[in-house]
Amino acid sequence: MSDNILREDEVLKIDNLSMHFGGLKAVDQLSFTIRKNEIFGLIGPNGAGKTTVFNCITQFYKPTAGNVVFRNNKDDVQSLIGVKVHDVIRKGLVRTFQNVELIPELSLIDNVMIGAHIEFKAGLVSQFLKLPNARREERAIREKAEKSLAFMGIADLKDQQAGGQPYGVRKKVEIARTLMCDPKLIILDEPAAGLNDTETMQLAENIRRIRDEYDCTILLVEHDMRLVMSICDRICAISFGKFLALGTPAEIQANAQVQEAYLGEKEAEAEKDMEAKEPAKSVVEQFKDNLLGKEQ
Ligand SMILES: Nc1ncnc2c1ncn2[C@@H]1O[C@H](COP(=O)(O)OP(=O)(O)OP(=O)(O)O)[C@@H](O)[C@H]1O
Ligand SMILES: [Mg+2]
Predict the structure, then answer these.
(1) What CATH number was assigned to the domain covering residues 1-92+182-255?
(2) If exposure means fewest CB atoms within 10 Å of the residue's CB, which of 41, 59, 178, 285 is most exposed?
(3) Ligand 1: which of 18, 21, 187 to mutate, judged by most atoms within 8 Å of the beta carbon?
C-alpha cells in the first residue's frame, strides 16, 4: 500500500484504487488527489465507475486494491481503508446518493437530524428516559438541522413529510443532511439529475456557498456538463474504470480522449434511440454543445 501522506493543501488522495466485481474491473488502478476547498468533478460515460469510486472512498465497498487517504475534520491524515462507514462520516466525509435516500414517513427536519445521530453522545437509556442531557443534545441537533434547512432555503417546509415532496426539495434535504457532520469533504452523486434549469442554477450557487461557508471541499459526479464546467475547479475524466484525463474544465473539454469516450457513448445511444421520435438531449449532446460553446 502507498504512503498515508498528503500535502498541506490536499484533502483526499486515491492511489491505484481498484474495485473488481468478479471479472469486471469497475475501477481500475485509478489515482487522483483533491485539494482543500476545491470543487472537484468526476465525469465519465454511464457505467464508467463513478459511483463505485464514491463507494470505495466512503468504504461502502471494500476496494480490491489501492489506498484512500483523507485529511479529517481534526486535521489528521489517515488511510480510510478498513474504517467503518459511520466512522468515515464522523471524520467529516459525507455523501449524498445517486437516488435520493430519505425516510418518506418522517418530516424533513427529522430526516436531516438523522445525519447527526452519529454525534449523539447521550446514551440510549438517557434518550429513552428523555433525561436533561439527552434533551439538551436533541435541542442542539434540532437547531443545527434548522440552520442546515435554512441554508438550503427550505426552512419553512421543515415539518412536512418527506414523502410526496417534489424531487428538488428532497435533493435539498439530502444536501442539508450532509451539513450536520462538520463536513470536510462532501461527495455529491449527480445532484442535478432531475432538476430543471432554475433549480440547477440554484444548486450551483448552493454548492459554492457550502464550500465557502462550511470551509469544505466538494467532490461531485454529474452528467449535466453545464454545471460541471461552470463550477468545477478541476475535473477528472474516467472511462471503463480507468483514468482518462485530469485538468481544468477548459483542458477537459479540449481533451481528445475525453471527446472520444463520449462520442463512443453517443454512437451506442444513437442506435438505442433510433425508434424514439424526439429523444431527450443526452449527456453527450450537452457535452458537445459545451465543447462548441453553444448556448442552450
Ligand atoms: N455492486 C455491484 N456488483 C456488480 N457490479 C457492479 C456493482 N456496482 C457497480 N457495478 C458495475 O460496475 C460498473 C460501474 O458502475 P457505476 O455505477 O460505478 O458507474 P457510474 O459511472 O456511476 O454510472 P452512471 O453514470 O450510470 O451512474 C458497471 O458496469 C456496473 O454494472
Ligand atoms: Mg453512478
Answers:
(1) 3.40.50.300
(2) 285
(3) 21
CA of 274 to the centre of ligand 2 (A): 25
CA atoms within 13 Å, Cβ hemisphere of 197: 2
pLDDT (tens digit per residue) in 192-203:
998 999 999 999
Distance CA 279, CA 285 (A): 11
Domain with CATH 3.40.50.300 in the chain: 1-92+182-255
User: Does an H or E element contain 256, and which?
Assistant: helix 256-272
Q: What lines the ligand 1 site, CB under 6 Å?
A: 21, 24, 26, 44, 46-52, 98
3-state secondary structure of 252: helix
CA of 97 to the centre of ligand 1 (A): 13
Q: What is the pLDDT of residue 131?
A: 64
User: What does the pLDDT average to over 186-215?
Assistant: 94
**What is the residue type of 30?**
L
Query: Per-residue pLDDT for 106 more than 80?
Result: yes
Q: CA distances (Å), 104 to each of 188, 199, 247, 279, in order?
A: 21, 22, 40, 32
Q: Indicate which residue's Cα is closest to atom 16 of ligand 1.
A: 49
Digit-coded pLDDT (tens) for 1-46: 578 999 999 999 999 999 999 999 999 999 999 999 999 999 999 9
C-alpha cell at 233: 475547479
Q: How high does pLDDT run on average in the chain? A: 87
What is the DSSP code (8-state) at residue 68? Answer: E
